[in-house]
Amino acid sequence: MTIVTLEEDRVRGPAAALPFWISLTMVPVIWFSAVQGGWWVLSVPVYAWGLYSVLDLVAGTEERNADPLTDRSQLGWYRAITLLWGPVQIATLFALIDYATRAPHLGVWELVGLFFGMGVVSGTIGINYAHELLHQKPKWDRWTADLLLASVLYSHFRSEHLLVHHRHVATPRDPATARYNEGFHRFYPRVLRQSLVSAWRAEAAMLARRGLPFWHIGNPFCRYGALQAAMLSMALLLGGWTGLGLFLVQAGTAIWQLELVNYVEHYGLTRRHLGGGRYEPVRPHHSWNSARKVSNWMLINLQRHSDHHYKPDRPFPLLQTYDEEEAPQLPAGYLAMTAAAMVPPLWRRMMNPRVRAWRRRHYPDIGDWSACRAASTPLRR
To answer: 34: which residues sit within 8 A by CB, 6+ positions away?
Structure first.
């Protein structure tokens, strides 16, 4: 596969950025679901997972790269959608709670289905945009990320992702790296438990290095707790106990969506242990990638994941794609692969041969992978 570079003028302006704004189409779909009720409450998952997986097949792949040296001042239309999405999602979420808890045409299961769909929106789009923003330097970007994560009660993701995942990816110290043959249903409870603990320990260790106790106001967990409490209070104020329950449904769905993506991104990939708790540097071949065009529009190039780990603060329109020799490629986009991950026998049939091929390509000298399968190599220092 030949990777070509786009000229800088192909990256600038609203027309070039427009495909990445398709996330906004989720908003009328969720409101259509709410107004129609009945089976229409499932419109969002059908739209997000079904339609976009089909469009991926039709549209094919995008294997061109923008010039990574493009001046960031030219990327305003790309950044705008990530900043705009924060207030749009939060306003939609709470307006939906206010409307749905007073709508006589929505029964219990319709309400649950509707807020499952809202969770698909806040997980597929919201957490992904928060992920983009928390890697950027402007304070407004990071505050928007905090608000989006608080709206799904997963604020600690910021600490875990920046301080743990990027440092320890593809080693046993990273909770978000799925092990070979570890089904999603085993991975999910493990990552929920371990990521919260690892995030807390990482922040406490940073405070300790500054001579401060973990309860110091500088611990971001204080901010996380306050923002999450505000979100829960707003849901309770607008919709009572029913509104609070529906808020929790969307939050749980969003977290499940995030961890499905985490599962896909690094499944079975490990860095070489060099001895004494040292590991090789992160390389492009330590992340699964997909060049599917439409799902990359929806996920703002999240599927160019190898380059994200190589340059974590690189804005999403400048992320580079790689060919099969440099980074492993998924057979479909993340949207289709997360559905496959919910069926472990199907997932193993699709992915285990690819993991074994990856091992032969990048580590032909390693014959015994049992320690990696058991995650029993020493923790990274």
So the answer is: 41, 96, 99, 100, 103, 106, 114
In-domain check, residue 173? yes
Please give the tally of structural domains in the chain: 1
Domain of residue 12, residue span: 4-373
Per residue in 329-365, pLDDT (tens digit) is: 999 999 999 999 999 999 999 999 999 999 999 999 9
Closest of 367, 301, 369, 378 to residue 333, by C-alpha: 301
Distance (Å, whole) CA 367 – CA 119? 43
Exposure letters 197-232 (e unless 16+ CB within 10 A, then b)? ebbbebbbebbeeeeeeeeeeebbbebbeebbeebb
Q: In the chain, pLDDT over 90 holds for what percent of residues? A: 83
User: Does 206 map to a domain?
Assistant: yes
Q: In this structure, how many other beta carbons lie within 10 angstroms of the beta carbon of residue 9?
A: 10
Q: In the structure encoding, which two tokens stand for residue 193, read together?
A: 């438990």
pTM comes to 0.94
CA–CA gap between residue 4 and residue 309 (Å, rounded):
21
Q: Residue 252 pLDDT > 50, yes or no?
A: yes
Is residue 3 predicted with pLDDT exceeding 50? no
Q: Compute CA 137 distance to the chain's CA centroid, rounded to the nearest angstrom.
A: 19
Question: What is the band of 12 on the pLDDT scale with cuts at 50, 70, 90?
Answer: low
